[in-house]
Amino acid sequence: MVCKHHLFSRFKIIPKSPQDTWVYVTILKHGKRIAVQESFHQQLFSACEQITPYLSGKITEPDESMLRSHHSGEAFFNQLYSQLQVLHPEAGKSYWITRCWDLATWQPLYIAFISVYGFKTLPDFNSFGQSKMGSFVTGFCFSNQKHRHGEVQELVPEAALQLNVLFEEYRTQLDQQYRCRPGFVKHLLADAIVNCCLRLKEFDPQLTLDDIRNNAAMWLSAFQLPLDQISRIEEKQGALSYVRKSCCLVYKTTQGALCEDCPRFKNSSPIQN
Fold first, then answer.
1. E strands along 136-208, which residues?
2. Please, which of 38, 84, 223, 269 could form a disulfide with 42 given CB 3.0 to 4.6 Å?
């Protein structure tokens, strides 16, 4: 998944006090600007769906079919893994487990980045649930409207704290079922975080290479991940490029190919902003 659209392309946040649960939003409708009042979570869900319609959220109690915080994900991962096996029998175990991890973690990461940078607010991932459509994890919910306001530098450590707990639940469950070791997911997570940081330049073209690297360092440090990936972030003729340390193994599928940022792809092309 790649963030290709500006977060504020259709709306603009006009913040009130940091403690206020409600914010005013200016929406362009039929050529006229109208002011409406929406909750933070409504704002967040709208922003997420503008990034991609697959990132669709709501406030509701997660049901038993979902991947829920503090609940067993055995049935959820069994179904997901089995569906990947059926869809890509030729790809093998390494691909199936890698894909399971990437699918389980992409939504929480995107939500955290959109929330922290777009709203300077963090929802409560302790009440988080994810749904599945076939072999793809899409759709999410929060069971409550708890959230925290703050500056980016304050929210990133809290986001990492909550997501680390959530992701360790996922990893432990996958490890019990299919073997998913800490060292294996460490590189996948670090690469995913760096790629989210690269997309910040799309929202603010004024960000420099150092800005992107500093943001990546802040997130990686908060997740207690190695910082060696930062040196892989480069800029050539105004375009950012990054060579991952991990491989998603999609090339093992019948129709798959090496990604441009894959370490196996020697001549990596810049990501156009």
1. 136-142, 147-149
2. 38
- Adjacent-strand bridge partners of 34: 27
Average per-residue pLDDT for the chain: 86
* 49: alpha, beta or left? (left if phi > 0; alpha if psi -120 to 50): alpha
The answer to whether 42 and 123 have CB atoms below 8 angstroms apart is no
**pTM score, whole prediction:** 0.84
Contacts of residue 116, defined as CB under 8 A and 6 or more positions apart, other chains included, come to: 122, 152, 155, 156, 159
Q: Rounded to whole angstroms, how far apart are CA atoms 156 and 216?
A: 11
**Where in the chain are the domains?**
63-252
Q: What share of the chain is helix, strand, coil (3-state, %, to 5)?
A: 45, 20, 35
Average pLDDT over residues 185-189: 97
User: Quick one: how far is CA 11 from the chain centroid?
Assistant: 21
Question: What value does the CA radius of gyration of the chain take, rounded to a whole number of Å?
Answer: 19
Q: What is the pLDDT of residue 236?
A: 85
How far apart, in whole angstroms, are the C-alpha atoms of residue 154 and residue 151? 5
Please report the DSSP string for 56-85 in residue order.
-EEES---TTSEETTS--HHHHHHHHHHHH
- pLDDT digits 0-9 by tens, 88-117: 999 999 999 999 999 999 999 999 999 999
Q: How far apart are CA 200 and CA 217, in angstroms?
A: 14
- Token pair, residue 113, equals 């980045």
Bridge partner list, 233 = 242
